[in-house]
Amino acid sequence: MATTKKVTKVSGGGTSSQKAKFVPTAEAKAEACKFRKYGILLWVLAVVAEIIAMVILFKKNPEIDLSTGARIALIAILLVDLILLIVGSMFWKKANRFDPASKENALKFFFQNQMGVVVAVIAFLPVVILAFIKKEYLVGAIAALFMVGGGLASADWSPPSQEEYAAQSTFVQELMGADHVYGTKSGSKYHLYDDCQYLKSDRTAEIFEGTVADLYANNSKIKPEMSSLCSACEKRAAKEKGWTEEQLQQAKEKAQSLVLPQGEEDTETDE
Q: How far apart are CA 96 and CA 140, in angstroms?
C-alpha cells in the first residue's frame, strides 16, 4: 500500500556504478562547491577577526593591564571569531555530504573532513600565545577555551566517504533492484518503502525520495553508515526476497566488499 503523505523528490547526491564506485553528479559537485565557498569565506573572516585581536594585544604593554572596555571588546572579537569558525565549518561539512572524500587517500580524507579543526587552531592559537606573552591571562584562557570548543564543534564525528556511499547504494540495489530510498527532513534513518511504519507518524508531513546519496546530502542527521538503513525496511525486503538472516548478512558484506578504490580501472569484461 502506497503512502498518502506528500512525497518530494530530492537530488544532488550522486550515483554509484555497478562496481560500487561512487560518482557525484554535476549537480552535487556544484552544491558542494557553493557550500565550500561559503565556508572558506567565513573562515577568512574568522582569521581577520583574529588579526584584529592580535593587533590590540600586540600594542599592549605587558606591564599595564588593558582597560575593562578594551578587554570586553577583545573578548567580543574572539566571540565573533568563534561564531564565524563554527558556521563556516557547518557549510564545509554540508559540502562533504554532497561530494565526500575517498578513504583511499587517508591524508586527504582526514583534512577534507576535519578542516574545521585545523582552522580552529589557526584562528585561535596565535592569540592564545600572544595573550600569555602580553600577560593578558584571562583573554588567553578564553581564547584557548574557544579554540577547543570551536575545534570540537567543527570536527566531523561521522565523516562521509565515497566507499560508504557506494556500499550502501549497492546493498539497496541488491534488496530493491534500484537505488531509491525515502526519508524525512530530520529523521536519522532512510527507508526502502514509502509506507514504512516509521513514516506513518502524524509528525511526518512530508517524505523525501531519492538515492542513498541524495538523502545523505539533504539530511545531516543520517549518519553515513550501513546501520542508517531502517531495520524494519531491511527485514521486510529480505522477507519479500525469501532471504534468511544469514543471506541478508552475506548480501551486506558482499556490498561492502565490492567497493572499488576511486580511480581504479575496471579491467573485468561482461559475461
A: 33
Residue 66: strand pairing partners: none
Question: Is the model's pTM score more than 0.90?
Answer: no
Q: What angle do CA 82, 88, 92 make, to 5 degrees?
A: 140
Q: Helices (DSSP H) in the chain: which residue ranges?
A: 26-58, 68-98, 106-133, 137-154, 162-176, 212-218, 231-241, 245-257
Contact between 78 and 127 under an 8 Å Cβ cutoff? The reply is yes
pLDDT in tens, 53-66: 999 999 888 888 88
- pLDDT tens, residue by residue, 22-45: 889 999 999 999 999 999 999 999
Partners of residue 161 on adjacent β-strands: 101
Give me the phi and psi of 180, to 5 degrees please: -140, 115
**Overall residue count recorded for the chain in this entry:** 271
